[in-house]
Amino acid sequence: MSYDALSDAVIKGDINGAMEETRKALEAGVNVQDILDQGLIATMDVVGDRFSKGLTFVPQMLRSAKTMQQCVEILKPHFQEGGVSTKGTVVLGTVKGDLHDIGKNLVAMMLEGAGFTILDLGVDVSPETFVQEVKKENAEIMGMSALLSTTMPAMSLTIKALVDAGVRDKVRVMIGGAPVTGKYAQEIGADSYASDAGSAVIEAKKILNID
Amino acid sequence: MLIVGEKINTSTKSIAQAVQTGDAAFICKVARDQAAAGAHFIDVNAGTFLNEEVDYLPWLVETVQSAVDIPLCLDSPNPEALIKALECHKGEPMINSISLEEDRFRNLLPVVASQPCKVVALCMAQTSMPTTADERIAVASELIERLTKAGVALEKIFVDPLAQPVSVDVTMGSAVLQAIAVIMERFSGVNTICGLSNISYGLPARRLVNRTFLTLALAHGLSAAILDPTDKRLMANLLTSEMLLGHDEYCTNFIDAYQSGGIEDD
Prior knowledge:
The complex is a heterodimer of chains A (211) and B (266).
Chain A: H1 4-12, H2 15-27, H3 32-52, H4 58-75, E1 89-94, H5 102-113, E2 117-120, H6 127-137, E3 141-145, H7 153-164, E4 172-176, H8 182-187, E5 192-193, H9 197-207
Helix pairs in contact in A: 1-2, 1-3, 1-4, 2-4, 3-4, 3-9, 4-5, 5-9, 6-7
Chain B: E1 2-9, H1 13-21, H2 24-36, E2 41-45, H3 53-67, E3 72-75, H4 79-88, E4 94-98, H5 102-113, E5 118-122, H6 133-149, E6 157-160, H7 172-186, E7 191-195, H8 206-219, E8 224-227, H9 232-244, H10 252-259
Parallel strand pairs in B: 1-2, 1-8, 2-3, 3-4, 4-5, 5-6, 6-7, 7-8
Helix pairs in contact in B: 2-3, 3-4, 6-7, 8-9
């Protein structure tokens, strides 16, 4: 099965074309999980990679992600109960005291496009809420965003809260945001730093040893 | 049109290094270049040094004002750093910025109300960032009301409508522009101020986007901007827009800039 036409349509953000290709694949009897993995998710990996390299821009990425979401809607009724595989659960949010959500939303969108299950806690998320949701969801990854140098220390406090709750070794911590650096991630004991939404996908797979 | 020079900010590597090593000569040069290019205020921001900001910000104030004879825009949400910076500042400063976020408002109100100063009122709501023009206008109205009630004159308030990336929502540009127009009309005498770089996040050719946005914002009544005054094309756009909007009598500033080589017709 070639996914070239579907892939092209997703990259271009051609919603109608991509939906058409998805339906065609279903009608041809292609396995639903294969359409998702090899058609859609593999394409979003390409989109994320191009974005990280500066070859494609935010509006194009958004358009591709929206196209993929529409295709997933077509696939959904065809998955058997509990049949959708996920790469892992990511609990993410913007840290306490910080209301910026644009970067965090882009990361959530691209991780979802890459096949992760996302729980987005929104903005101004307290360390207690992060810990509680990580425990409740048995999350593989906790993602924190901060857009202000003044709110970066909340990342460190949240990691401390994970330690205090005894769950630090159960979850991988990934951080990002304009003032955040890889060096800072090391200093506060995070597992990973991602500089943009495309890299977030690569980093998430890396820390979970996927692919 | 009031211009605030944005370059002395420790989120820029060379500035951070100069601040850390106490390289006053470097900071003075950046300040002088901006003043010579037309800045009316020089922004100073040491926010990336969380623990040292209380010492670095006053040092920046003294250093910059030893080089240029203009007031500064003290860029910090930290009341302690601001108070120390204010103590050594000469002239009437601009404080950047207060917002509706609860802690920030409570901490900064006594600082801005206790002395003559200009204040940037950032349209950040208590628990969210505004998206539509109406949301921005609502936050601005509340900030203006609470600031004037505390004794801050309308003319000293600079509302920042909080530009957000047009790349994630194409209505973000027009939302800011409409908000500027309504705020300037509804609160006659108030100022509006805007940074330019947020609008272009996620797009290519960002400087082109920024300077085109500045032109549009000016056309909607923007009265101040935080920008890099040493960016010649940006300043050429600004001068040309101001002239076309009827703010440059006998086109003096525009022609002066042309004759001194600041503007080229390419």
